[in-house]
Write a structure and sequence with these properties.
Pfam families: PcrA_UvrD_tudor, UvrD-helicase, UvrD_C. By secondary structure, this protein is α/β, with parallel strands linked by helices. The protein has 5 domains: about 180 residues, Rossmann fold (3-Layer(aba) Sandwich); about 80 residues; about 170 residues, P-loop containing nucleotide triphosphate hydrolases (Rossmann fold, 3-Layer(aba) Sandwich), CATH 3.40.50; about 150 residues, PCRA, domain 4 (Orthogonal Bundle), CATH 1.10.486.10; about 70 residues, SH3 type barrels, CATH 2.30.30. Helices cover about 45% and strands about 15% of the residues. The chain has 29 helices and 21 strands. Strands 9, 10, 11, 12, 13, 14, 15 and 16 form an 8-stranded mixed beta sheet that branches. Strands 3-2-6-7-1-8 form a 6-stranded parallel beta sheet, sandwiched between helices. Adenosine-5'-triphosphate binds next to helix 3.
Amino acid sequence: MDYLSTLNEPQYEGVVNTDGPSMIIAGAGSGKTRVLTFRIAYLIQEKKVDPFNILALTFTNKAAKEMRERIEQVVGSNARNLWMGTFHSVFARILRAEAEKLGYPSNFTIYDADDSKSLIKTIVKEYGLDDKVYKPNVVLNRISGAKNRLVSWQEYINNPIYAGDDAAAQKPEMGRIYKTYCLRCFKANAMDFDDLLFNTNVLFRDHIDVLNKYQQRFKYVMVDEFQDTNVSQYLITKKLASVTQNIAVVGDDAQSIYAFRGANIENILNFEKDFPDLKVIKLEQNYRSSQNIVKAANSVIALNKGQLQKTVWTANGEGNKIELIKAISDNEEGRFVASAIFEKKASDSSKNSDFAVLYRTNSQSRAIEEALRKSGINYKIFGGLSFYQRKEIKDLMAYLRYAMNPEDEQSFRRIINLPKRGIGTTSVEKIVVAAFEHDIPLWEVLTNINSFLPGRVANAVNEFVTLIKNFKISADTKDAYEAASHIAKNSGLLKELYADKTVEGLNRYENVQELLNAIKEFVDSPDVEDKGLGAFLQDVALLTDTDNDKDENQDYVSLMTIHSSKGLEFNNVFIVGLEEDLFPSQMMLSSRADLEEERRLFYVAITRAKKNLYFSYALSRYRFGRLMNCEPSRFIEEVDPSFIFVNTRYGSREPKLGRSENPPGFSSNYAKNLIANRKQQTQKKPLQYHKPSANFRPSDISELQEGQKVEHPKFGFGKVRKIDVNGANKKAQVVFEDFGEKTLLLAFAKLRIVE
Ligand SMILES: Nc1ncnc2c1ncn2[C@@H]1O[C@H](COP(=O)(O)OP(=O)(O)OP(=O)(O)O)[C@@H](O)[C@H]1O
Ligand SMILES: [Mg+2]
């Protein structure tokens, strides 16, 4: 068995000790995921366990897919029957099978965060409450928090301790909104993401026979990234494994980064209590990264007080130091990243897929994206406004969802007047309220609309009903692709998009075609058993940020948030935007616990790198629509400086922003300056614009030359780097002393030529 011979001693223990509970809490890159993968292969191949009896819970569907592929390499296609996926996808599947026990039909809809928010908005409005007090986001977070602690709306209302004592909880109507939200979801045959876990808990609590069935089925349970499970997820796992006790969990407390979403690090302690026969396995050797990277990561995480003691070392070579790059602006940062990738590819023939750019927030991708595009480097953004969040895609998806479930209120609202049928929002409200007040299904109101609305609108609704009935037949009788094509065509959506001949319109049309392609692919895939529309919709509803991996065979640089990068590895990693208030995030500075979570996030980012790691920061950046002056992140300074090298080749243009010129981490004064600056500047101010000189008069710039010095009324003095005569739009690229490079359209630019 050659795959076992590649394991070190404790990894081997983790693989072959398949009976009874075990837990591996170990540092990044030490092979935890690999142990789980091999353990499954071992169960199937050596222990002759039927894959049907194995359940493996991963953090993303992508991780599940990769594990499955690796297992298939060992055991062959037999691995297909494994149950492996995210908590949400596995339990959505169980809930579909058992839905009627909870009073749901099996074709229930899964509401995404937008659906949930818009439902909350509606409820807040219906109650005549102020949506500045009851912000949909805040309310949703609160409801989500309650569900993840398994606090039902009844408990929330009856027992104020559940509501908590923070500002959000003090709002008196929160309980009522929670209640109505749940009732409306139920009525719409819909579950939100948190319900998938909450309802699984209810199912296993109230239906012992069902629990027994799954306990017997899943004889071996495994959980990756255990540190990020919440209470609700933990309870489900615990219950499933409580009979056989064959459970293995792996994780790293130093990588716990979802406390803000209810992940509970105490699950590690609970696990020890709940499974007293536990075998604890330690992995200490990191196989992923160079010495420099491992040591740098250790030096950072050592600053956290609340960590379990762990050793992480590597036998890998020393490797290169971390390169630190300073940029004047976010755009320049993007260009540096692009140049560094370009040069690295040229020097050692790396592929695009060897690179990842990691950032704290999705909005940072813009500058990086632009620079990569200009350099002709293929890239892909994970997360953010993904394909499935685009309007035209959501529109068609709403039709598909509605054809499956005519009680789905959010989809109904989206499509009832799309394309326009003359059914206004007042009529829509009347319909929804009628269903609620009479306590009848929405579909019943629609099919008896003449009793509720006056003639003209009623006629329009009747036409809509006929259309949906027709769609329903096709959803019930055809495969997902045929049904979706039929619906796209006959709903009028495609026609409307086709009629729009603008570039955006064309794009939208192509996006819809692309969705149909994706459905075709789904239907054609040998891994898919159920080829119906419902199965496809469920698949899409449960996509996680890193899943959207359609063009797998292409070679691209990965752009993603650090949160999404968990568990992944790349030869070369850029951590960009290492600036105070961005990373660590401004919102995470209020308590030591929050700052420690940010630091763990930094640790996760560092440990994604195998060979080369780059840090970058910009001295100014557009945020919230304003140009902000930024300071380098404290995290840069927290890395032991002996592992860092300042790359002045990229960051050579010194800005004049009154900052300390010392690169972070290199001078003992640096920390003092940083602290002093931070105290002075608790509130970030936008950069001061230039005051034009007294003799400022715009010059005739039709003759503007490269190399000339100019004055701009806002950006001050600068030098013309390049003039671009491309068609009618003559542009100048000017490097301003204080604002970095700007591209100005000469037809509009007010410039004084100084010399
Ligand atoms: N014994 C080994 N021999 C060779 N390579 C190994 C060994 N163990 C792990 N690796 C490799 O090290 C890398 C990290 O392993 P893995 O992803 O399983 O670590 P992990 O502990 O799950 O990391 P993370 O905490 O980031 O999720 C992988 O490329 C894996 O193939
Ligand atoms: Mg892992």
